[in-house]
Amino acid sequence: MLTIYHNPRCSKSRQTLALLEEKANEHKQEFTIVEYLKTPLNQGQIEQLLVQLNCTPVEMIRTKEAEFKEQELNGASDEQLIQAMVNTPKLVERPIVSDGDKAIIGRPPENVFSLFNQ
Q1: Which of 42, 53, 81, 102 is the most exposed place for a label (fewest CB within 10 A)?
Q2: pLDDT value at position 118?
Q3: What Gene Ontology terms describe what this protein does at the molecular function level (predicted)?
């Protein structure tokens, strides 16, 4: 089952969702949409996505957001960055699509294709 962690106000997230809908339909695969600003991720979910993405917290956080600077997160520890994403969901990079084992960040949106070419 695929899951997209989606922000409908983000153009890249909308583009990734459109590509996901198209590919999932072709492959007769269902997916779930999680609007993570309405349903924030907890620490365990973020840690699981980091493993699936095979990345560090700084690679999954939006460093250009005002909240990143306001919270003085430059040079913060992994634990501090994860807690910042829990407390301020807007800081989570978007969109993220997971198949339960592997995840991708939809920047560019075409990254979602890799979840179908396994």
Answers
A1: 42
A2: 55
A3: arsenate reductase (glutaredoxin) activity
Amino acid at 68: F
* Single-letter code of the amino acid located at 16: T
* Active-site choice (10, 33, 34, 53): 10
Look at residue 38 and give its three-state secondary structure.
Answer: coil
CATH code of residue 53:
3.40.30.10
Query: For 101-118, what is the mean pLDDT?
Result: 92
Mapped onto helix, strand or coil, the DSSP state of residue 103 is strand
Task: Residue 97: give the domain boundaries.
Answer: 2-115
Contact call for residues 91 and 61 (beta carbons, < 8 A): yes
Query: Does the active-site annotation cover 10?
Result: yes
Return the DSSP state at 93: -
